[in-house]
Amino acid sequence: MENQPNLGSVVVRPICADEAPRWVECVQRYHYLGYRGIAGKALRYVATLEGRWVALLAWGSAAFRCGVRDQYIGWDEETRQKRLHLVANNVRFLVLPGGQVKNLASKVLSLNLRRLAGDYQKIHGYPVVLAESFIDISRYRGCCYRAANWRYLGLTRGYAKHGATWRHHGQPKAVYVYPLRPDCCELLRGTLLPADFNAFEREGSMEMLKEFPIEGLMEQILGLHDPRKRRGVRHPCAVLIGIALCAVICGARSFQAIADWAKGLREQDLRRFGSRREKPPSEATLRRMLHAIDAQAFDASIGAWLQAQKPLRNKGVALDGKTLRGTRDGERAGVHLLSAVIHKEGIVIAQQPVDSKTNEITQVQPLIEGLDLQGAVITTDALLTQRELATHLVESKGADYLFTVKGNQPTLLEDLKLMEFEKKTATTPPLTRPTEDSNGAASGSAPS
Fold it and tell me: Are 259 and 286 in contact (CB under 8 A)?
């Protein structure tokens, strides 16, 4: 006891980006469940004592169903779906070897809970109001959770989700919860969220739907090919695509969020999409359709419709390439897309995949081939600053351009520096020559 460290020096903080590999390695090595990623909105923490790592924690999305928790809150099915994102699940808690200090675990949990809601607000845009954890009673008794004032609710029924079904594994878990604010249960089951509470009932607002030209959109996508077999089809392809597209425009960012948004559609809203059914499509139905649809045909159809809604004359259009996050698989490179994006609205009007054996330069003309760029101003990064593209934009598409010039075009960059230098010396005595690492810009206009 004489060498007991001072727990007042314990610090719990989110990990830094360069600490992630070490964090993952420790959890994989020392936690009995290992590490296979975290579902949903995640946060990872490290606890330090006198500068050394002593414990690791991870938080993710709450369990979709848990009987004793839902009963404790007073949730019905609909309210649970709308408020589930306000609950965080303590998916990992690991005291590292050499960190077994009396009362350390409960101290780390308490410090983490003090900052959890604020960190969720800062990183994910909304605070959580309830923390939950599931303890394997065959291994642990949950003493540190009890010591940190968590509330024991009971045992799970011993089921786990596998795909679209639930399977009984026969290993019930002890359920513990910790309210992060006194009125958490009232807030989670209430009819309306407080006006000053920065959270959302669902991803995506219904307000935009009132004046949105759904009928015109549906006319545009009616011609899309339905890849499904005709037998058993309940929702037409155009209905599913129209609902998904409007949900994304209104703010939904996942398959589940699209389905949740669709559940808020009234019968008259469904009729605007051309649906003859009383209930909206499920998450599984929407997900299967979005996976199966011809992406290039969809891009072309929606791009044409967006151009009709927002003509490009006198608008800025950026040509830029990005690699899609999460598409890299082992040695296989990620999916790289070259896109045309309207500057002000941020709307993608065309996309072109870029094969790993080529680059963006060869794909830019196929990208803009079907776009009406008359009177638009095209901007690019330095990679696409090419004579052939400039000529094509001005002479064939009737567009103006503003290109970035950097070190990959050394002769052009030097010419621009000299032009600026000569312009200054024509009116004032020379002061200093432009620095060698400065960037220039080349521009051109279509004939009037």
Answer: yes
The H-or-E segment that residue 316 falls in is strand 316-323
The CATH label, of 3.30.950.30, 3.30.1360.20, 3.40.630.30, 2.60.40.1120, for the domain at 7-189 is 3.40.630.30
Instruction: State residue 314 phi and psi, 5-degree precision.
Output: 65, 20
The structural domains of the chain, with segments of one domain joined by +, span: 7-189, 207-297, 312-324+335-444
CATH 2.40.10 for the 312-324+335-444 domain, yes or no: no
Q: How far apart are CA 38 and CA 69, in angstroms?
A: 21
- Residue 310, SS3? coil
CA distance 60 to 92: 9
What tens digit of pLDDT does each residue of 270-284 get? 888 889 888 889 999
Query: Which two tokens mark 184?
Result: 């958490």
Six token digits for residue 102: 């009396």
For residue 423, what pLDDT is reported? Answer: 60
Backbone φ and ψ for 312, nearest 5 degrees, come out as -90, -5
Torsions phi, psi for 215 (to 5 deg): -60, -40
Count CB neighbours of 118 within 10 A: 12
What amino acid is encoded at 245 in this protein?
L
CA distance 228 to 200: 34
Residue 43 parent element (H or E): strand 43-49
> How many other C-beta atoms lie within 10 A of the C-beta of residue 308?
11
Residue closest to 12 by CA, chosen among 135, 119, 122: 119
Report how far residue 231's alpha carbon sits from residue 148's, in angstroms, rounded to the nearest whole number.
Answer: 56
Alpha helices in 31-73 (DSSP H): 67-73
Sheet holding 10-14, edge to edge: 10-14, 43-49, 52-61, 87-95, 130-136, 173-179, 151-155
pTM of the complete model: 0.48
Query: What span, in angstroms and rounded, lies between the C-alpha atoms of 90 and 166?
Result: 22
- Amino acid in position 293: I
436 or 369: whose pLDDT is higher? 369
